[in-house]
Amino acid sequence: MAEQIISPGVFTRENDLSFLPQGVGAIGAAIVGPTVKGPAFVPTVVRNFAEYERRFGPLNSETYVPQTVREYLKNAGAVTVCRVLAGGGYTFSSGTTEPIAVIVGSGSAVTAVAATGSVNFLSASLSGSHEVQITVTPGGTEYRYIASDPAAIPADNSPVFFFGTGSTIGASVTSLAAKITATSIGITATNSSLAAAPGTILGLTASAAGIAGNLITVETGSGGTITGDVALGPGYTNTTFGGGVDAAVDKGILVGLLYPSKATGTPSLETTALSPVGGAVHVISSSFGITLNGTGVTSNSFSASLNPANSDYLFKYIGYNSNNSKDSATSYSGMPGYTFLNFKKLQSDALATGDLSGYGIGTGSTVVTAKMSSTDCVFSGEIGKTEGYGYASTPFIQSQIALGRKDLFQFHTLDHGKHLCHEYKVSIANLKEPADIDGIEQYSQFSVIIRKTMDKDKSPVILEQYNNVTLDPDSPRYISRIIGDRYPNYNETLNKVELLGNYPNVSNYIRVAVSDQVDQKSISPKLSPKGFKAVSNTFRTASLSVNCIFPSASYEGVQQLGTDNTYNSKGYLGFKFIDKNSDNENFLQPLPDSAETNISGDFSVEDYSGHPSSSLWVGSLSASLSNDGSAGPTNGQIKFTVPFQGGDDGLAPWTVKNIGKQITGPNLYGFNLSATNKAGYKAYKKALDILSNQDEYDINMLAMPGVIHSLHPLVTNAGIDMCEERGDAFFVMDLNEADASVNTATTNVSGLDTNYAAVYYPWVKVLDTAANKPVLVPPSVIVPGAIAASDRIGAEWFAPAGLNRGILGNVLEAKIRLSQAERDTLYNEKINPIATFPQTGVCIWGQKTLQERSTALDRINVRRLLIALKKFIASSSKYLVFEQNTLQTRTRFLNIVNPYLESVQQRQGLYAFRVQMDEANNTPDVIDRNQLVGAIYLQPTKTAEFIVLDFNVLPTGATFDGAGGAGGAGGGGGY
Which of 11, 263, 422, 552 has the most C-beta neighbours closer than 10 Å? Predict the structure, then answer.
């Protein structure tokens, strides 16, 4: 409100006119490439290497990005890191990239054959798991035909099964003696012999009791092939089972999974039929012979066992790393595969008991291997998303049993990648039920605790803890408000990163996603977190050629620590993590699309007894709960832990990650950059498209360490285009492979013409402090750091080269010691040499851009001068947008720009300059178009790259003109 002055007097007022428009803040390079961890395709500013390690992980032998960031941050205040992950996902397909499943089942081994007929069975719904199996033994060879519907045997009144013979029984067979075997089901044969004529019927009558869950076995005493149908009497519905064969076992359980590993091409991992060693017949406690082979790999036969204590233990022998048999860029010897899943406890149980009867498999211990059938197993990362990479997620946290086990909320990691499930877990504790809180219609309150995955309950490693959170959307303690629910999502249509969610992320590790019912307040406030939905299987057993089940996850149902059976209030229920008696680590792997729910089912604290010693919570609770869900275990014991599942890098597990001299067009860090339809190219192009947004990402340099122009021109050209379109970033580009000669380098640079990029030669050796050994790296790993050092010593307009600002102090040696002639050849072709001089070490000895024309912009210092000037002036001029186009506004502009350019001139960046913004370039027609036009004229300083010294030898008696004089015997004369 304007001040109203009525009576006379002296009035003083303050007007703060000292405001200066903010110029350019801390600007740094953008480093693009894969990292150990971190958010994918979210450019993130880090200001020191410790912060980088926290967000993106440590130095790593499979990527140059960490080393590049570390070298750069030694001399710069900030860097923008954009992590690249694979967007294509991967698929295991029958006949191409199948894994090998190791399965243990009951019964003896059976020959696998194609079905010769069809079996019709009653399609009836039964409780429990049942199986229809018809075993036929013509000529002494046993074939087992399994119905595809496990609920195939009716349990009602005396169904009548008819087995009809077809016309393909051998002509020499005159009678067919049928032997019916079953266990306690009272099956009686109505006919004991049959003629060979087609269509003769053998009727089998089953008793009313005890038929469900048992097998019906039909054996023929003579040779021949049986075709035909099993039919039902009148009133029953038949469903056709079009063949299908159980290759080896009545019912198997997966005990391990081998993934193929191969450097190039399409991986293929195969195994021969298992053979007994020492007379054993497929018994788990004995060794068996196995041969692994595949396309382009060396066949390897060996003896192995499933005893983890043995030296020939199968999974230990094969190894656990996809690179475990790599001996060059293109070939393998040894193991063409590696262990992905390994259920050691399950194997130990089978060894101890001689069978897996405790797992519902029955007696016996047959070992078989299986591959993909006709069903693919697809891994594409986030469920329902097209990207191949994904963040990790917990199963939904659920409410109490009495109120219907409703989905309440779940957690997602902020970062992406398969490592996440092995890093974090979430515990729910300190529950306060609505009945325990004063007021009407109160919501429950509880704590969310983020912990390290492999910590122990007795000494938890707590990363973050959020207390007294609630599911009330109107409360300031609402779980989404307290933890945060925002996440970036790349919108391919808009070519931008969108930020979805409502509440800023407070957590550094996770975000929360509540169910729609919770967020809309459409569920009862009495609901409390009491458990979680079933975990998912990390591989689809339905895709395998042998009928088997995925092992059950293990849940902790007793509140104790260790195995001494003593109650301890520190103990958490829920998913077991560190436990030698648990195979749960196999559930912390990437998840396939349409992942199967594990047979362990949903977890709830109400399904367990706590601990008898606690005197707090004893007995089964499900039946004792009241309708409002308030009854149940003492709340101090309602504490459980839930895992993260499904984080994925998007790279197929068999992918070998080439680096250094092994880099090829189709393989850089495992990414294929050879064509525009390859996932690797799309990933890098996506990162560049995101960074092209000047308004959101302020950078002045670009580096993609390891992306080499001679191998990956599609990506390097996209990097050049991005820098040129932005107009404010300079691209430090890798030109050649590690072993390229000088002549090769000059050939590879042909056709490049831009002043927004520069290349260097050769590669250099630096010390990898993580491995404590020298490693060979491309120039883009160390040149950005050298440019940052030059900026720190001088400014952007000083040449980042020479003995003052181009020394590469962290470089051990250049791969090639260049001669003067070689340096001349390289510099003449716009390639900046990395030279080695005695006593001074390795340094950059050139500062040319890739521009063909001989202008001021063919030098790096001039291009970077213009980038610096444009950034400052454009940033400052933003404050003039929408101001009046008057003399006062123009004067404000001049008062901003002139002092800045004067300072640049004083710091040796300019010889001279002039700034014009007046009526001459702001004519009435320009003003009418709502434009404010300025003109800036610059004379950039040039560097002394060629110093010419003439040494003139004069005769005795010659005189020297000039201030230095002739000099005497004891002193010089002005040299």
Answer: 263
